Amino acid sequence: MQFSKHLILLSLSLALINCGETNTVNQTGLAIDLNTKSLLLGDTLNLTISNPKKLNITNVSYKLNGKSIGENEVLENITLGEKSLVATIKYDDKTETVSKSITIYNNIIPSIYNYEIVNTYPHDITSYTQGLEFHNGELYESTGQYKESKLRKVNFETGEVLKNVDLDDNFFGEGLTILDEKLYQLTWRAKRGFIYDVNTFEKLKTFNYGTSKEGWGICNDGEKLYKSDGTEKIWLLNPENLSEESHIEVYTEKGKIPSLNELEWIDGKIFANIYQKNGVIIINPHTGGVEGVIDFKPLRKLVTQHNELDVLNGIAYHPERKTIFVTGKNWDKLFEVKIKKQ
Q1: What sign for the dihedral angle of Cα 117, 123, 127, 129?
Q2: Res 10: pLDDT
Q3: Distance of CA 27 to CAs 50, 63, 320, Å?
């Protein structure tokens, strides 16, 4: 399957939103000057102060998102997205603070990945798939819709449901992940997640969201949990108390990628579905930079077409087989694929 890079990026329509700069200026006219309007990861910030009234400036210090930086700062070891740049200026025994909002973009164009279908398996056509993950060779699935949401353990080869828990009618199930024999399941707008014993499906506790107001997708790197909330942000959660310790913002070289949905950790990267798109992006978890794009749109034509059919959603990596399993909302097939950079 061959696609041009530009056509695939266009077809995914990832709604890139270009964010400009804003600068606070007060009565003194002092303001932060930048050497460029477009900032990419790896660029150098050459900072100066605009001083139209020729005040006697004796000292200037800068902070980027609360961290002290120099006037010639290389933008490395930093996450992408919107940042606050603050200058503290001393002049004539006075001190003034001015700020500027900047946006840092990724410095590479995403690579395009092709896929090969290895196997096709049955999938419950009534399952509005939200989360999908393998654990010890067995497939776990979380589904959505009010009064229909459930948590399941499934025989992926036959589609047989091995274990099932129905959520209360007022919860809309979302993503899931498994860490240290605990299964974490999100709900959509209830601002609440559930923790189960992965072996028994016994509910151990619930947890509330912090700054992120909704639950969409979740994955883990073996230590920390990563949670999407339907925006361009992915939140890093402490698995001990589920607090949101920090977040990354997902950007290409052109703009941010909103509507991040189901997440899967694969070989040190985060794979993410984009809501209402039939593609998957590959994200650097340290920066938030998009490094790859997979266009799975043709898969939708291979499933039974019906009125409730919805978009691709659900990514599960099988580490022993080194393959990726994908499906969609109300799809009757589960696809096992291998991907390769074009």
Answers
A1: negative
A2: 40
A3: 13, 22, 64
Sheet with strand 218-220: strands edge to edge: 218-220, 225-228, 233-237, 244-249
Domain membership flag for residue 3: no
90 and 120 inside one domain: no
Structural domain harbouring 334: 111-341
260, β-bridge pairs = 274
130: in domain: yes
Pairing of strands 323-328, 333-341: antiparallel
Question: What is the structure's pLDDT at 16?
Answer: 41
Count of the separate structural domains present in the chain: 2
Together in a domain, 150 and 186: yes
pLDDT: which is higher, 36 or 108: 108
pLDDT digits (tens, 9 = 90+) for 274-331: 998 889 999 999 999 999 999 999 999 999 999 999 999 999 999 999 999 999 999 9
- Is 124 found in the same domain as 36? no
Asked, for residue 8, whether it belongs to a domain, the answer is no
